[in-house]
Every structure is written in C-alpha cells, then in structure tokens.
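testing teh design pipeline on a random one, pls ignore if ur not involved
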C-alpha cells in the first residue's frame, strides 16, 4: 500500500504555521480551527500484477487552539477573585494568600508567554534574513534572554516601540517582576509581609499591568490593528 504524501505532514505544518503567526489574533481564549485535505492509497492486486486499484478520500482535522497568554491572564483573574471573595467573607487567610500568590505568578507568566510567542514568530518568519547566531540568541538556545530585554529589544525586532520608553508602565512592570521574583526565588530576607489588604492591592495592580503590557505587545506588531478583547477584562 502506498500513502501519497500530500499528506498529514503538510496538513499539520500548515495548521501549526497558521496558529503560530501573531498576525492571526485569536479573539477568544480558544478557537476551533478546521482543515481538510485528501489522502490517496494505491493497492496492487498481487506480486505479478501491473494493475493497481487506487482510492482517495477526503480527510479533515480539527484543533482546539488555545491562546496561552489569555489563558494565564484568565487564571490570574480567577485566583484574584477567589482571594478577594475569601478575604471579604473572613475566610482562612492562608487560602487568600495562596490565591494572591497565584495571581501574581500568572500575571507575570501571561506577559512572558505573549512576548515569547511574538519573538519566536519573528525568528521563524525571518530565518533567511537573520544570522544563525541571532536566531539562536532570541530563541534562547544557549541561555535565557532577560525579560526586560525581550520587552525592549525584542519588541523592536518586529518594529515596535520598546516598552521601557513608557516610564510609568515600565515602573509598574518592574514592581510586578520584583514581586514575582520574591515568590519564585524565595529567600527569608525577601519574604513578603503578609498584610492582606496590601497584597490585594499589589495583586490587582499586577493584573492591570499585565493587561496594558500585553496589549502594547500586540499593537506593536505591524500585522495587528487590535488585540484579543479578553485582555480588557479587569478585576
């Protein structure tokens, strides 16, 4: 039996390239994408036969495409609301703090996921125009690239204005980053002072900062005139 390679390799390659491009902005947290193609088989009737029987049929595939930065942003909103509700109802403070820690982590992760997608897409689309060294640098083959550099030189790669030029937003982003780092790279000397009302304010500010940063990343790309509307949702 012979499988004609008009094939699933090409089929899924087209599917993956469409999903990865930042020019295809997902309007929802997840979108359904379908594609169709044709598969052909050729069957010989016996070892001495020169006749063949050919069959072809249409095949299709559906994929649930998840906008990961939107998903993480939604996680931040969810955990913040749970923490605020628990605090309002005078629940277990450890539950409130757990939710607020998750809020901070997912707010930062949403930003990082977003800028990584745009930089990876730029490298993929410009491999014939940029050096191998530059491609490996921005895809972090050798070592991680600092998030601050991604949001400045990384955004400039695809023609955007470095986020550091917005001094107020840049201050807010670095406050979120420091809060996140104190959780991820925990040291007793950097432990958080668990004033719940203050943590609620910081966590909410982190979500609002993530919203603005991500929207600026989307709009920095020349292919985009808008961004997924979910990033307008605030606590």
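output:
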């Amino acid at each position: 039996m012979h499988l004609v390679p008009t094939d699933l390799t090409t089929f899924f390659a087209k599917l993956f390239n469409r999903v990865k491009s930042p020019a295809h902005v997902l309007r929802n947290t997840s979108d359904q994408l379908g594609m169709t193609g044709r598969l052909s088989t050729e069957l010989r009737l016996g070892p001495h036969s020169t006749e063949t029987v050919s069959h072809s049929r249409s095949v299709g595939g559906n994929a649930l495409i998840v906008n990961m930065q939107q998903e993480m942003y939604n996680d931040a909103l969810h955990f913040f609301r749970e923490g605020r509700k628990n605090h309002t109802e005078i629940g277990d403070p450890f539950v409130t703090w757990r939710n607020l820690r998750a809020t901070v982590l997912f707010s930062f992760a949403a930003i990082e996921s977003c800028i990584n997608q745009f930089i990876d897409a730029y490298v993929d689309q410009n491999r014939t125009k940029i050096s191998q060294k530059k491609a490996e640098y921005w895809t972090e083959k050798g070592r991680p690239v600092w998030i601050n550099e991604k949001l400045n030189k990384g955004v400039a790669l695809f023609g955007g204005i470095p986020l550091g030029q917005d001094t107020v937003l840049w201050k807010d982003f670095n406050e979120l980053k420091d809060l996140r780092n104190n959780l991820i790279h925990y040291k007793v000397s950097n432990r958080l002072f668990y004033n719940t009302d203050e943590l609620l304010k910081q966590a909410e500010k982190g979500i609002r900062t993530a919203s603005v940063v991500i929207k600026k990343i989307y709009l920095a790309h020349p292919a985009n005139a808008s961004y997924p509307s979910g990033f307008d949702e605030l606590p």
